[in-house]
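Justification of computing resources. Each target in the renewal requires a structure prediction run like the one illustrated here; the chain below, 296 residues long, is used simply to show the kind of job we budget for.
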Amino acid sequence: MSGIINKLQLIYNRIKKLLLYITKGEWITKTEISVENYIKGKIPGTVRISIGIFILAMIIIGLLTILTKGYKRGFGQGILIESFGMLLDLFVIAIIVLWLNEWRDKKLKLEIEIKRYHEEINDYRHWQSDEAKYRIMGNIRRLNKNGISKIDLSFCYLKGVTLLNTQLMESTLRHVNLQNAHLILFSNLERANCLWADLRRASLFHVNIQGANLMCARFQEADLTGSNLHGANFRYADLQGANLSRANLQGAINLTVEQLSNVKTLYEAKLDSDLMEQIEENYPHLLEQLEEEEPF
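Resulting structure tokens:
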């Protein structure tokens, strides 16, 4: 009997040292995971609890093994078998819990970062400076990298920027300054709200602007070559001198012949049949290829 007591005392001392090492001298009491603890490299509370439960199960099974060592059949052996099965279940559950905790931490961290990017854009809103422009561009890229395309860029100063493959679907670009900007290489403004957007002399080469609200937008001398403007709202939009060659204007809303009469060219542009008939009758020169434009 004294031998068993000595063995139990030895097991207890070793387990105590292990628990103190894992918990860094603190008993396992906390049950919540925080992003701050995760970032600082501390062991989250639920992780410590899982480890503690696992070790406690090992202690119980160890005690049962010692106390039922003489049993080869019957009740004692059944307890051991069930205990080992329980230990395996706990081990699997602990792995699942640890994975879920890590996934939740990453998700919370990502949500915090995305919120910060939006806040930084808001901080530089209304600033008309190169610093503000580059800061906003950087945050747009970071948001796109994290799969975010719906961004509020209202009243942002982005004059002369170059945005490659930029995704701004359903974004708000009210009163945004994109003069002389370059949105190229599959940039996407589908269903964006571009009310009063300033796009004078902007290059929107093969950009998807399908279904966008372009009400009162200024496109003077803008290059919209090959852009998809299907279903876009052109109410009061200024298209003076805009290049609409090969652009898709079918299904455009509130687009008038008067607006189209002021564009630079409609060479190979796609128009609804009624608009095309009026252009062919009254402004056939707009359907001709410009001298400086090379065919694809």
